[in-house]
């Protein structure tokens, strides 16, 4: 296991009026990984990012980044952290190239036109470098936010809903860019409403609701532990009862006995193997079926199930 780059312990944030945005959050992120934080609106994702980036003052707990306690050594740690916010907060009348270069200077780094050009080209912004940000499309404006966050060459990058409001093509381009950043050694933490982003890119996934972390695990382990297989076997003739030989399997009859429904397994392939055993028994017993529909649960199914359980 690589060394932790971010360590959060017992982090809380309570606002006047009683709202608890973060409730005793513990989280460790390791160097070089892509970590996806999933949760519904109001779950605490943006508050958590804000606490690490110095935009939100925690009510309690500790945050350590690169081995530094952010409560006492915030400035040196923050210089190594990049943030792409959810909201388009930038000077809309500034030229793209100037805005990105200015962001580099904010962190005390010397001017580096070659590096700025490299960033703009990697984001397909070089041809737009002289344009005012206000003249760009929504997707291009979001790319400018990413360029500004990369200008000071951070080791840890937060992406808060990076592909919200962009089209599918731009989303795929950004996924590619995130992969390239990881290859350069950047640790990435992203929040997203698009579960497929987590499935596509993340090494580990955390699920948060009502300010509490419900689960943190790598995708494969999460699928094995919480995944399942569902199958509907359509019978030629309705069954009145499930055959005794199949009583050990998680089967139910629906649609007046026409559908023999299976739900079980653990995300490791056990479910599909059991469905095959069920269909073999039906064939051996001379019980005819005319079709079968089978699917394995996705990360989205697991996410929805966990969130509903905790509601």
Task: Break the fold down into its secondary structure elements and pairings.
Blueprint: E1 4-14, E2 20-30, E3 34-38, H1 45-52, E4 60-65, E5 68-69, H2 74-78, E6 81-84, H3 96-106, H4 113-122, H5 138-150, E7 156-160, H6 168-183, E8 187-192, H7 195-201, E9 204-209, E10 212-218, H8 219-226, E11 229-235, E12 251-254, E13 259-264, H9 270-284, E14 289-296, H10 299-310
Parallel strand pairs: 3-8, 3-9, 6-7, 7-8
Antiparallel strand pairs: 1-2, 1-4, 4-5, 9-10, 11-13, 11-14, 12-13
Number of helices: 10
Order of helices and strands: EEEHEEHEHHHEHEHEEHEEEHEH
**Assembly category:** single chain
Strand content: 25-35%
Uncertain residue ranges: none
Describe this structure in words.
By secondary structure, the chain is α/β, with parallel strands linked by helices. It has helices at about 45-50, 75-80, 95-105, 115-120, 140-150, 170-185, 195-200, 220-225, 270-285, 300-310; strands at about 5-15, 20-30, 35-40, 60-65, 70, 80-85, 155-160, 185-190, 205-210, 210-220, 230-235, 250-255, 260-265, 290-295. It folds into 2 domains: about 5-225, P-loop containing nucleotide triphosphate hydrolases (Rossmann fold); about 230-295, Alpha-Beta Plaits, CATH 3.30.70. A 6-stranded mixed beta sheet has the order 6-7-8-3-9-10, with helices on both faces. The protein has a 4-stranded antiparallel beta sheet with strand order 2-1-4-5. α3 (about 95-105) runs parallel beside α5. The mean pLDDT is about 85.
Summary tags:
10 helices, AAA+_ATPase, Alpha-Beta Plaits, ATP hydrolysis activity, elongated, 14 strands, 311 residues, alpha/beta, 34% helix, ATP-binding cassette domain-containing protein
């Amino acid at each position: 296991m690589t060394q932790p780059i971010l360590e959060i312990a017992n982090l809380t944030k309570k606002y006047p009026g009683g709202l608890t945005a973060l409730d005793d959050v513990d989280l460790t992120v390791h160097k070089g990984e892509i970590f996806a934080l999933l949760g519904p609106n109001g779950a605490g994702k943006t508050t958590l990012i804000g606490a690490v980036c110095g935009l939100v003052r925690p009510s309690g707990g500790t945050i350590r980044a690169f081995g530094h306690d952010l409560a006492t050594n915030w400035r040196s740690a923050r210089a190594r952290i990049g943030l792409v916010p959810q909201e388009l907060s930038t000077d809309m009348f500034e030229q793209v190239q100037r805005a990105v270069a200015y962001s580099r200077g904010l962190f005390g780094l010397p001017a580096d036109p070659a590096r700025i050009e490299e960033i703009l080209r990697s984001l397909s912004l070089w041809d737009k470098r002289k344009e005012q940000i206000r003249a760009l499309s929504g997707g291009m404006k979001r790319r400018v936010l990413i360029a500004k966050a990369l200008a000071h060459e951070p080791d840890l990058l937060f992406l808060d809903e990076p592909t919200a409001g962009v089209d599918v093509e731009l989303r795929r381009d950004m996924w590619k860019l995130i992969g390239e950043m990881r290859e350069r050694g950047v640790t990435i933490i992203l929040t997203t409403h698009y579960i497929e982003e987590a499935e596509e890119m993340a090494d580990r996934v955390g699920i948060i609701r009502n300010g509490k972390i419900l689960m943190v695990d790598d995708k494969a382990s999460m699928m094995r532990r919480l995944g399942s297989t569902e199958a509907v076997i359509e019978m030629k003739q309705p069954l009145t009862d499930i055959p005794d030989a199949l009583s050990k399997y998680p089967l139910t009859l629906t649609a007046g006995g026409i559908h023999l429904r299976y739900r079980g397994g653990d995300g490791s392939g056990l479910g599909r193997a059991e469905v095959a055993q069920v269909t073999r028994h039906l064939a051996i017993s001379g019980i005819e079926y005319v079709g079968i529909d089978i699917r394995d649960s996705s990360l989205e199914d697991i996410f929805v199930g966990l969130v509903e359980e905790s509601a």
